[in-house]
Structure formats: C-alpha cells, structure tokens
Amino acid sequence: TQSTWGSNPVFNSRLEMGKDSNKKKQDVLEFGSDSDELADEFEDEELEVERDAREIDEDDEQMELDAAAEMKEMAKDQEGFELPPARDDLESVEEDEEGKLDVVTEDPSNVYSRIQSILGVLADFKNKRTEDRSRSEYVSQIVQDVANFFGYEIFLIQHFLTFMSIPEMVEFVEAQEKARPLVIRTNTLKTRRKDLVQSLINRGVNLDPVKWSKVGLQIYESQVPIGATPEYLTGHYMIQSASSFCPVIALAPTENERILDMCSCPGGKTTYIASLMKNTGVLIANDLNKSRIPSLIANIHRLGVRNCIVSNLDGKQFPSVMKNFDRVLLDAPCTGLGVISRDSSIKTSKTEEDIRRTSHLQRELILAAIDSVDANSATGGIIVYSTCSVSPEENERVVDYALSKRFVKLVDTGLEFGTPGLTRYQQHRLDPSLKLTRRFYPHVHNMDGFYVAKLKKFSNAIPTPKSKAAENEEEEEDDTHKKKRKKKHVEAEEQQQPEEEEQPQQEEEAPEPEPETPAEEAEPEPVEVESHADEPKPKKQKASSKQSKKSNNVKKVSAKSKKT
Questions:
Q1: Model confidence, pTM
Q2: 237-239 and 182-186 strand pairing
Q3: DSSP three-state, residue 311
Q4: Which one is catalytic: 246, 308, 334, 388?
Q5: pLDDT in tens, 1-45
C-alpha cells in the first residue's frame, strides 16, 4: 500500500493535512484558552457532525450544572426557612472602614424569594415554622416585604388582609403589576359587532369577542392605533374596560324609560345605556366635575346618542331637582383600589382617612340615588351601585347602610360570573342578602377590581330614625318577654311536683299551737261552773281550726304558682 499510494500526490497532501490538524488539536489541548487563534482555526476545520456532537456535550454539561444548583435549592427548602430579623425597609445604613455611613439596598430577588418562602411556611406552619418564632412575626415580615417589593404603603397591605387571605393578597398585588387586556365596546347605534370585527381585521387588528358580552371585543395586537382608526373616529366603537360593562348589564335598561346616570363622565356607561335604549326615552347624564363635561359631550356626539340631557349638578341634591326615574346608575367616586394597574400612584397616595371620607360621600350619594327613583314604576324602580374599589368600607358597608335607611332590597344582578359579596367583615355582621352582589378581582377574572350591587325600591316613604329604633326596641322587648315566660314556665313545672309532695307532710308534722284566749273570751262567767270542765274541747277545736287555715294557705300558694 505504501508503494502504491506513496507515489499519489493527492494522498500525500491529505496525509500532511491530517498531521497538521492533529498538531493543532494538540496545541489547543496544551495551551487551552490562551491559544484563541488556534481554537478558531480548529473550529473552522471541524466537521459538522463533530460540531453538533460537541454542542450536545456542552448542553449536557450545562444541564448537569443547573440540576445541581436546583438540588441545592431544594435541599435548602427541605432544611427549613429561617425568618430574618424584622426591618422596616429594603435599605439599611452601615458604616464602612473609614466610619462613613453607606446605604446598602437589599437585592429585590432575595426579598421576593423570602415572600415565597414565608408563603410556604404559612401553608404548613406546624411543620415548617421556626420554634422560637410566632405566626404574627411571619405575617408582619411578609407585610413589610410585599409593601417594600411592590412599592405600597404598609397600611394598604394591612387593609387588604382584613378581607383577603395572605396568599390571595399576594396574588392580588402581583396581578396589579400587569396591564389589563385592551377591550372595546361595539356601538350598536351605528354598526354590528361582526361588521366591526371584519373591518378591524382588514386593518391588521388581532382580536377576539368577549364571551360574556354581546358587544365586547378584546384586542391582542394592532398595526394601527386603536384610538385613531376611521371606525373609532366615526363612533363605531368605544374604548372601555371590561369591568365597566357589568353595571350597565345589571341595570338592564329598556326602551322608553327615564334613566339617570348620576356620575357619568367620561361617558362610556352613558353611551352604552343609550344604545340599549335604542335612542328612546330620556337619559340624564350628570356629573359634578365641570372640567370633565366636554369629554362627555364629545363622546355623546361621536357615538350618535340623541336621547341624552347633560347636567352639571351635585348628586347629593339631585332629588330636590328631579325625581321619579325608572332606573338610576350610581358609579360612585372611590379610592380606585381596584385599578392600581392603571394608576400606580394609588399605592402611596391613599390613606385610611381617604377611605373613611370617600365612604361617607358614597353613603350620601346612594341615599340620593334611591330617593330619585320611583318605587311605583311599572318597569323599573331599580338602583345599581358600583365602584372600582375592592374595599368593603366602600362597597358592602355602604349598601348595608342603604338597606337600613331606605325601603329597598337587594336582587340578583344578572351577572353569570363574579365572586359573591361579603356578609362578614372584621367584627361587622352585614345583611345576608349581600351575597347577591358581585365582586371582581384582577387575579381571578383578569379584569379591573370592581363591585356591583343591584337594589329594588318597594316604597317611596322614608323611614325615620325613631321608628327604626322603636322597631328594634320592640323586637328586643318581645325577645326578652318570651325568654322570661319560658323561664317562669320551666320553674313552675319544676316547683310544682316537690310542693305537692311536701303538703301532706307539713299538715301531719305541724305542731299544735298554744291556745290564745282572746279578750272577748277572757270575760269571767261566775254563774256557770261546768264551763271549766269543758275547757279542753274548745282548745282542740281552736287547734284544728288553726291547722285547717294553714293547709288552706298552702293550697292557695300552690294555686298561685300554677297560675304563674
């Protein structure tokens, strides 16, 4: 073979190339990373199969390293989570070697991992807790971590925990960091939903219909601005959050009715009501803020609403101006704790005083809305109360207050989804019918936080506080009288049997009383001497008469006990 192939120049050249490549490989092994040029040249001459095999080996090595790191983390979790010392902020102040103060910020990834670790401990607190740490310490630590990591005031996190569990609170806060889906509402006064879908798809819009609404469309992506299309400018649709559909659906307006939207700006719900009324009847759109009225009027004109009257009045005094509406929608002003994803300044700007003041305003507005409705309406007598907040102070407690101050009752909202309203909040026991109201959460329904309640008015009279208090006192008195009667009846039954057994014993064992000579009988009778011999007889008669009187008294007492 050497003789035959040795004279072949092609074979000799390939043999020399193989020797050179082996030498270059050896240089790469000897010098390692220092010979970068040799490594690059070696990779260029490497076959495709060899390159693929080398990449597979590198991937396997990386997977082994990742698996080892994951095993270490799992081992740490199994060993248990140690709660760090309590700190008020992510930043701490330390002194360097020269004595100068230096601000050290804790890594946010460590804070988030601690939040997840505490959630795991609280889920199985008995087995995973640290012996010298209480549950309140874990709760206070996770409150501080959530507030610091997501940028909230500690008061708001504590307020959320008054009506949410700790895992639900963390999910709610995390969901508020994400933007809600973009939704538009079809204006049925000018077009149909399927026609609008076709025209938007032709413009490069990716969308889907909202399943629980007949007019809603969810936008995923668009090649053109949704607020600047010809369809938007001509009033074929309105950009509106999905949660704001719910109050109008609960209101269920019909044609030829008189309807009031007490807080109507910027006009999304007002124009939706007008489309359901098909431009018939009368729709009053009111708002207190005069600076927002132009945007309301612009939307009314753009969407082709012709049955609407715009007013700029204080809702609290509205019953003195106009009454006898068939339906009233009150989308009350609130703290906005359900729409933090839209306005992140709510995290730090809202306080306990804001919630208290807003709740007081909402109570005044809901009473005014109820007074504006006609209970004798043939088709209505409906009040819908809604807020974009999740706080029970602004929702259930306001509706519970209205139930105690006016002749109204809660009815089903007609919404097929949503979480039932709260009937218990801290130490308060609310009306059981509040479970008919509906709550919406971003982490559950992928919508803005919202609350909807539907009330039916059954009398135009206004109960006075005295009559209500008198009714409560009468009910309490009736209850106390019933309890007393039951107790007396039980005691009489218990005393009846032993008294009947003791009566004959008392009659037999009663001692004979000493005879008493009254003044009339003490007069002497000197003529008749025989009367002294007969003295024992009247004594016995007097004793027997005394015993009979005593037995009669006992019988009278037993008769009285039976009567009681």
A1: 0.68
A2: antiparallel
A3: strand
A4: 388
A5: 444 444 555 445 544 555 555 554 454 444 444 445 544 555 556
What is the total residue count of the chain?
A: 564
Share of the chain above pLDDT 70, in %: 68
pLDDT digits (tens, 9 = 90+) for 488-512: 666 766 666 555 555 544 444 444 4
Highest mean pLDDT among 1-5, 69-73, 186-190, 547-551: 186-190
Positive or negative, the Cα torsion across 279, 282, 286, 290? Answer: positive
Q: Are 305 and 273 in contact (CB under 8 A)?
A: no
| 323 touches 374 (CB < 8 A) | yes
Give me the amino acid identity at 450: F
Decide if 388 is catalytic.
yes
Give the whole-angstrom CA distance, residue 436 versus residue 421: 7
Per-residue pLDDT at 515: 46
The span from the CA of 89 to the CA of 78, in Å, is: 28
Residue from 224, 222, 226, 247 nearest 236 by CA: 226
Q: Which amino acid is at 284?
A: I
Residue 56 class from Cβ within 10 Å (0-12 exposed, 13-18 middle, 19+ buried)? Answer: exposed
Q: Which residues contact 478 (CB under 8 A, 6 or more apart)?
A: none
Selection from 366, 365, 383, 272 nearest residue 326 by Cα: 383
- Cα 244 from chain centroid (whole Å): 17
Q: Tell me what pLDDT residue 118 has.
A: 87
Sheet harboring 237-239: ordered strands across? Answer: 205-209, 216-222, 182-186, 237-239
